[in-house]
Specification:
The chain is an all-alpha fold. The chain has one domain. The protein has two helices and no strands. It is rod-shaped, with a radius of gyration of 18 Å.
C-alpha cells in the first residue's frame, strides 16, 4: 500500500536538491530528507482519509 505513494516524495527530494544545487551551491541534505518524509506522511494520510469508514453500517443492526 505504501509503496505506490513513494514517487511523490522522491520527486520532491530530487526537485528540491536540484534547485538548491543550482541556486545555492550548497545542499542541506537533512532538511531535504526530512521534508520528503514529511511530504510522504502527509500524502499517505491524505489518501487514507479519503477512504470511507463503515461506522454507520452496524447502526441499524443494534
Amino acid at each position: 500500500m505504501f509503496g505506490k505513494y513513494i514517487w511523490i516524495p522522491i520527486f520532491v527530494f530530487t526537485f528540491g536538491t536540484v534547485l538548491q544545487l543550482i541556486f545555492n551551491k550548497e545542499i542541506p541534505w537533512v532538511h531535504n530528507i526530512l521534508f520528503s518524509v514529511f511530504v510522504y506522511l502527509i500524502y499517505v494520510f491524505w489518501e487514507w482519509s479519503k477512504k470511507p469508514y463503515g461506522w454507520n453500517k452496524n447502526k441499524s443492526a443494534r
